[in-house]
Input
Amino acid sequence: MAGSRASPWRRCCDSQAASAQLNGEPFRIVLCHSPDGLSLLAGLQFDLFLAGHTHGGQIAAPWGPIVLPHGRMCSQYPSGFGRFSSGSVYVSRGIGGVELPIRTFAPPDIMLLD
Output
């Protein structure tokens, strides 16, 4: 699913073709800008999916995100760890913001994988 033009919104990611190149082995780590890329992995195995894009809602309340980027997977995976099929998912809130220079109840984060 690599490539400078690949994105889940353009529908130009060919996860099936990428999977075929792995000769039956699962994807180990999938990097995608948005959790919406998970929908392209339905039926495929992966170990770890890393994404951002949601900013954790950027403007949130103690009970959860108020503002999220559009997308079904963004709503399901606004930030933190989760599971999708048999793989682990981590969505970072990142350190920036979109349009509004504020963040509430969505503190920035940077993940260090070891």
Summary: The beta strands are 27-31, 46-51, 59-61, 64-67, 80-84, 87-91. The radius of gyration is 15 Å. The first strand starts at residue 27 and ends at 31. Residues 1-5 have pLDDT under 50 and may be disordered.
